[in-house]
Amino acid sequence: MNPQRHYRQDLNSYANQGGLTLTYDKTFTGPQHSGTWTVVAYIGDIEHGRGTASNQGQAKEIASYHAMVALGLNVD
């Protein structure tokens, strides 16, 4: 993953251009001060990417990255 790239924004643009519905399912587990976020990216009703991190934003970026890879999109 390139830390300078905004995968969430790129995936959203891809979905909008294709008339697709992009949604994210977010869950938090563990203690409030040191828990873990898991985010799943769906296009339509199909899971395309999943990310886990200590903050929601990073988990969403990771899920978006994996969704782009699954869709065969450029992630360089």
TrEMBL record:
Entry's Gene Ontology molecular function annotations: RNA binding
Q: Which organism is it from?
A: Guyanagaster necrorhizus
InterPro entries linked to this entry: dsRBD_dom
Q: Is RNA-binding one of the keywords UniProt gives this record?
A: yes
- What SMART domains would the database entry show? DSRM
Question: Which SUPFAM superfamilies is this protein grouped with?
Answer: dsRNA-binding domain-like
Q: Entry's Gene3D superfamilies?
A: 3.30.160.20
Q: Can you say what this protein is called?
A: DRBM domain-containing protein
All copies of the DRBM domain together span: 6-73
* Signal sequence extent: none
Record key words, sorted: RNA-binding
